[in-house]
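Supplementary Methods. Inverse-folding protocol.

Structures were first reduced to a discrete structure-token string of length 226. This string, shown here, constituted the complete conditioning input.
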């Protein structure tokens, strides 16, 4: 009886590990927030920052993080679809990466994530919203701190997908792949004012992806002096 129980237990454990591997290609460590349409989690990063690790944990004021988010801009081809909370065009060039409702919601959660993250983790975020019975738009990415630089990664910005695509049998749902571009396209992530923008060096992330997320660094501590 005990042998049979142990055999079933081992088989169940193996199946769980296999299913988890299929569903979550990257290892999440802590869930900061999770709902059907918005997720904030910590994700382990192999050999982060060329093995040196990130500058976590870090207590960054929520308003300072919100100020950085307000300055983030995306340059991308115009689309006929937009989320109700999508950013508006900016006179300084490009489109705001985050709207005020998004900033109000995500800034406290991202700050909480940075305060809990280890040097081997980064904070990831994901949100989606339906635009019709068939389509939804997805925005996702992550952030980490390196020294005095706050780096944002934007993997997807209002990317249109069919709703059923997020439930395919042999592919992990998009909310489990926040750093993976769903539909890579030309574009870049910028910061306003540009003099506080830092071009990201290579090698800080060792994650196998089908394309690189847009990334920009910001010298966030200098914002309070402006």
């Amino acid at each position: 009886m005990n042998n049979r129980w142990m055999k079933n237990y081992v088989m169940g454990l193996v199946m769980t590990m296999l299913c988890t591997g299929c569903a979550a290609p990257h290892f999440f460590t802590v869930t900061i927030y999770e709902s059907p349409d918005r997720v904030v989690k910590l994700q382990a990063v192999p050999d982060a920052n060329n093995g040196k690790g990130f500058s976590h944990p870090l207590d960054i004021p929520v308003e300072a993080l919100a100020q950085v988010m307000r300055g983030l801009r995306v340059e991308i081809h115009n689309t006929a679809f937009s989320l109700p909370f999508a950013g508006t065009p900016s006179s300084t060039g490009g489109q705001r990466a985050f709207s005020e409702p998004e900033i109000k919601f995500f800034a406290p959660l991202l700050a909480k994530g940075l305060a809990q993250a280890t040097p081997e983790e980064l904070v990831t975020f994901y949100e989606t919203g339906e635009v019709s019975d068939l389509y939804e738009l997805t925005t996702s990415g992550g952030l980490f701190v390196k020294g005095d630089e706050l780096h944002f990664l934007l993997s997807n910005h209002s990317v249109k997908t069919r709703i059923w695509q997020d439930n395919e049998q042999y592919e992990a749902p998009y909310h489990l792949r926040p750093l993976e571009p769903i539909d890579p396209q030309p574009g870049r992530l910028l910061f306003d004012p540009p003099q506080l923008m830092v071009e990201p060096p290579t090698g800080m992330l060792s994650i196998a992806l089908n394309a690189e997320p847009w990334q920009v660094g910001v010298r966030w501590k200098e914002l309070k002096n402006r």
